[in-house]
Amino acid sequence: MAIEGSSEQTRQPRIRLGMVGGGAGAFIGAVHRIAARIDDQFDLVAGALSSSPEKAIASGRDLGLDPTRTYSSYRDMAIREAKLKNGIEAVSIVTPNHVHYDAAKEFLRRGIHVICDKPLTSNLADAKKLKKVADESGALFILTHNYTGYPMIRQAREMIANGELGDIRIVQAEYPQDWLTENIEQSGQKQAAWRTDPSQSGAGGSTGDIGTHAYNLASFVTGLELDSLAADLDSFVEGRRLDDNAHLLLRFKAKGSEKPAKGMLWCSQVAPGHENGLKLRVYGTKGGLEWTQADPNYLWYTPFGEQKRLITRNGAGSGAAAARVSRIPSGHPEGYLEAFATIYTEAARAINARKKGVAVDPAVIYPTVDDGVKGVAFVEACVASSKRNGAWIKL
């Protein structure tokens, strides 16, 4: 991946990064820290890694943070870091969903850029308020829909934008998992406990956790905007308060004179045999594309009436959009962590452009607070539709 200013003489100083959440026992915090370092653009220098003072201090010590910059309150962190001469320039928020709004607001209001895990917030009212805060702050807001960072997803997006599939007719997205097939939240499993708790996760279970990823990916690749949906949500595991499976019908807005595209989305966390089965298929008047996250360096392309073709990352037929987010030669697999790192590096490019007072390169792409609002609206529309026996809901 070409990193701007990467030579010793010209490279930008690493961006000073803080983190909220992600302490000992957290899964996604470690992923964010790895992603932030892969392209050498960030230094983690401060953290409010837990609301427990003892756990926050221990987690900061494990990560080698200065004890004076290890906090048990994200508000205290935001206030003090904003006053320090070398305080943080950006913060990663990797907490359960219900903390996102308040935490992000504290940093945005002090001009600190925010890199936030998805979904944006646990409810649409907070999402809209957070967008207002972000727009007024002048700080950047990056939402880590990390799957948009895969090179072959950028390839698919470029091909569709260039008209190689013609008018888009059908969009099929799915994201099945099996890890919640049993009621493991009752055993105290931390990740399951908060994800199935509406007070922490919000109104959606599988729809909020993984359905938002599938929805965001479909929109990102096709450039289509969702018009309405009809949803059938289930909580198959007895006693579970949030959905663990969802079947959706999708109607997209028409583009120009084209007929509106239709789609289906399935997300499940009770599908034995599926570990992390994110897949996207798109069909148009001239051809189709298929991508699966289990084999992310491959994109299958079928022009109508011709044989199926395999496009590989950095291989023949792969274009500029994929190449700019590829790091190594073809044949060497790039995966989940590298895709996540792409979002961080795009964020770094935008932050460095802001520091210089110049326009960011138009090629730089990352999910924004607007994508976050759409994601939360999607979840609430799914819940509303299912409560009305699958009625169509406009977004």
From TrEMBL:
InterPro entries in the record: Gfo/Idh/MocA-like_OxRdtase_N, Gfo/Idh/MocA_oxidoreduct, GFO_IDH_MocA-like_dom, NAD(P)-bd_dom_sf
GO molecular function: nucleotide binding
Annotated ranges, domain GFO/IDH/MocA-like oxidoreductase: 153-290
Residue ranges of every copy of the Gfo/Idh/MocA-like oxidoreductase N-terminal domain listed in the record: 15-143
Chain positions covered by the region annotation Disordered: 186-207
Source organism superkingdom: Bacteria
Name this polypeptide is given: Predicted dehydrogenase
Organism expressing this protein natively: Rhizobium lusitanum
Lineage: Bacteria, Pseudomonadati, Pseudomonadota, Alphaproteobacteria, Hyphomicrobiales
